[in-house]
Design brief:
The structure holds two protein chains of two kinds.
Chain A: H1 8-43, E1 46-49, E2 52-55, H2 59-66, H3 68-99, H4 107-115, H5 122-132, H6 138-145, H7 159-187, H8 191-199, H9 204-215, H10 217-232, H11 236-241, H12 260-270, H13 275-300
Antiparallel strand pairs in A: 1-2
Chain B: H1 2-11, H2 24-37, E1 46-50, H3 54-60, H4 79-83, E2 86-87, E3 90-91, E4 93-95, E5 101-106, H5 107-112, H6 125-139, E6 142-146, H7 152-160, H8 178-192, E7 196-198, H9 201-210, E8 214-220, H10 224-228, E9 237-240, E10 259-263, H11 270-281, H12 285-295, H13 322-331, H14 342-357, H15 363-378
Parallel strand pairs in B: 6-7, 6-8
Antiparallel strand pairs in B: 1-10, 2-3, 4-10, 5-8, 5-9
Helix pairs in contact in B: 14-15
The chains are: A mainly alpha, B alpha+beta.
């Protein structure tokens, strides 16, 4: 390389070609990423009725604090986040640890079976769940036949049970997806560690807590962040599981399934179209995601 | 609409009309994004908008819809329909289907409980609940399929009293609204009386009466298509006037839903679009007869009510002249201003209903809470 000194102009040409090649990507990025980000920030300072806009500065942000519908959506979203994400991730981790055991028969079959829900369409599976969990649906009928319950459970008609249904549905849909991450992570954990532990007399449970979890930490952090973001943007499940979906009066009984994303949708398309206020809430989600991700990195204690 | 197209293109062979069917939510999504962006290319010349949303569109997108005052004879349409498409004295739409409501019931089941059709004329909701209890005792069937968080019935009750969630000036009118208070109390009474089959969503609700699990349904005329879908129940149904609320001014006529045509301003086909609506939807009596028979779509074009199809006896309803009755009730529907925030108000009230059902809060407190919530939400 040192033998052939490249001339300045040649480098310049190379540069120009370089810019040319990335220009398409950059322009697309600017038009479809940066412009909307900046524009929605500007939009969040406006209050609008359709195209009738007026500048309110931080008005939308102060309005949030008093808007009970927003607070309800925030509460619901966090309820899903705090309850559903840990259950799902723990379950995924346990399943991954079990299915990583080479002595288990039909390992591939189980792995595929548990991952399969992740390839179904969000709308299709929620509609199936809605049918299964309806008052005289499959789940109630089954539980009553088994004499586990006497009265049908009002799955989608009671604020509490509606949340439970969504949590069950989401866990079914996403556990396998996260399990695959853990499984792939486990492939890089050397078997010698487990062998050594076994020789030292560590039980399976001790191995799980002292080898599996520490070794998978980066992946656990990754899945936690992804699930957090996913839950904060939760939309399809509550929308499709609630009565009437888009056209229903409330999202779930007593707005128990109203999430931030659903509220944004409602503000744009169902209620008086206030795109400014909707943009404000979108930014609130961004802030929350940023803060939570920061905390998760800190708690995980990764220096890098 | 296909029928209207065929009729119009017969006289105007040069005009091409393309009809696009869309689900309500999809259409609204598209309309809002298009209108907000100001791009007119993707927009149709004519659009069908639900009446509850009319004012919202007209006021959110000033200049987007064509002023039809004087171009269409609005006096030929049901009065309440014209009111909801008027902004600052200008009328922007052509009224289309009516949501005139009725008390559709299973004659056979109510007879078992000892009720004759004349007992069901012009009743109150209290009487309705009493009937429901007796029906349940006699037949074991629920009286109504009922979505606990569905506000449709409440809107029927409200409009029957000439009231809405807002007063004439568009201010929130919830906490001190006697009709609304009575409506919420009636909701609770219906639930407490244990005369309902709880349903979630449209499909379950329709299935409840199609399967014969419920003895009646109180809703808009557009339900007839779904009722008739179950052919084995032919001859067993009948319709009576909508029950009224126990407040002064409430009548036995109301409305749920319904929609109207609007022409978009600034599109190429605007003038043709207006002409099309005028020739068919605002003049063609035969057209309304035909769509009634074939589609069960009941227009709010008043001269149509005297046509053959409207005065025909309907075998499915045991020979009752269903549409004559409904047309008569349609004339009595109190006109109310739906305002801009019907769905926000609906949500605010229904969000508090679970606590009302369980008795955790009183009706008065629930309405106070809903009013507070709504005011904060819409920023008033």
């Amino acid at each position: 390389m040192q033998l052939r000194k490249t001339s300045k102009s040649y480098e310049k040409t190379l540069d120009r070609y370089g810019w040319l090649f990335i220009s398409i990507a950059v322009i697309l990025l600017i038009v479809f990423m940066f412009y909307p980000i900046v524009y929605s920030l500007i939009l969040s300072t406006m209050s609008s009725k359709g195209i009738v806009q007026k500048f309110v500065g931080f008005g939308n942000y102060t309005r949030l604090v008093k808007d009970e519908m927003f607070l309800k959506a925030l509460k619901n979203t966090f309820a899903f986040l705090i309850i559903q994400v840990p259950i799902m991730l723990l379950l995924a981790l346990v399943l991954a640890a079990i299915l990583n055991d080479k002595t288990i028969k039909f390992r591939g079959l189980f792995r595929t079976g548990i991952f399969l829900p992740a390839v179904t369409s969000l709308v299709a599976y929620t509609i199936l769940f809605k049918m299964m969990f309806s008052a005289d649906g499959f789940i109630n009928a089954g539980l009553m036949r088994l004499n586990i319950i006497k009265q049908p459970i009002p799955w989608l008609m009671d604020p509490f049970w509606a949340k439970v249904t969504v949590i069950i549905a989401m866990t079914w849909r996403w556990t396998g997806y996260n399990m695959v991450f853990y499984l792939s992570g486990l492939q890089s954990v050397p078997d010698e560690l487990y062998e050594a532990a076994e020789i030292d007399g560590a039980s399976k449970i001790q191995q799980f807590f002292h080898i599996t979890i520490p070794m998978l930490k980066p992946i656990i952090v990754f899945t936690t962040i992804m699930s957090t973001i996913g839950t904060l943007q939760l939309f399809d499940e509550p929308m499709n599981l609630s009565q009437g979906g888009v056209t229903g009066a409330t999202t779930g009984p007593g707005n128990s399934l109203l999430t931030l994303s659903v509220y944004i949708y409602n503000l744009c398309f169902k209620y008086m179209p206030n795109f400014g206020y909707a943009a404000t809430i979108a930014y609130v989600i961004v802030f929350i995601v940023a803060i939570l991700t920061f905390i998760q990195f800190k708690v995980a204690g990764d220096k890098e | 609409m296909n029928e209207a197209k065929a009729r119009y293109t017969k006289d105007n062979p040069k005009v091409e009309i393309e009809i696009v069917d869309m689900a309500k939510a999809d259409l609204e999504q598209k309309l809002h994004t298009m209108l907000a962006s100001g791009v007119k290319d993707g927009l149709p010349d004519i659009v069908l908008i639900e009446d509850y949303n009319a004012q919202k569109y007209l006021k959110s997108y000033p200049g987007a819809f064509a002023d039809l005052t004087g171009k269409i004879d609005h006096s030929k349409f049901a009065n309440y329909k014209v009111g909801l498409m008027t902004v600052n004295g200008k009328v922007y739409g052509v009224p289309f289907d009516s949501g005139v409501s009725g008390f559709f019931y299973r004659k056979d089941l109510l007879e078992q409980a000892g009720y004759k059709p004349e007992d069901l004329n012009n009743i109150t909701w209290d009487k309705f609940i009493e009937i429901g209890k007796n029906v349940k005792k006699a037949t074991g069937k629920a009286m109504l399929g009922f979505g606990l968080d569905d506000g449709g019935l409440m809107r029927i009750m409200l409009q029957s009293a000439g009231q809405w969630y807002f007063d004439k000036n568009g201010n929130v009118n919830i906490a001190n609204n006697e009709a609304l208070k009575e409506a919420v109390k009636t909701y609770k009474a219906i639930v407490d009386a244990d005369i309902i089959k709880k349903t979630s969503g449209w499909n379950e609700w329709v299935a409840a009466f199609n399967k014969g699990d419920t003895a009646s349904v109180v809703t808009g005329v557009w339900i007839i298509g779904s009722i008739k879908a179950e052919a084995t129940q032919s001859g067993k149904w009948a319709v009576a006037p909508t029950p009224r609320l126990n407040v002064s001014g409430s009548v036995n006529a109301s409305n749920l839903g319904g929609s109207s045509w609007y022409v978009l301003e600034g599109t190429k086909g605007k003038d043709i679009a207006i002409d099309f609506l005028n020739k068919i939807y605002a003049s063609d009596n035969d057209f309304y007869q035909k769509i009634l028979v074939e589609r069960g779509a009941m227009g709010s074009y008043l001269p149509a009510a005297t046509g053959d199809a409207y005065s025909k006896e309907d075998e499915f309803f045991g020979g009752q002249k269903v549409f004559t009755d409904l047309s008569n009730w349609m004339k009595n529907i109190p006109s109310v201003d739906f305002g801009l925030y019907t769905y926000e108000a609906d949500a605010a009230i229904m969000a508090n209903m679970p606590d009302v059902y369980s008795g955790k809060i009183t009706v008065e407190d629930a309405l106070k809470k809903a009013e507070e919530q709504l005011k904060n939400q819409i920023g008033k």
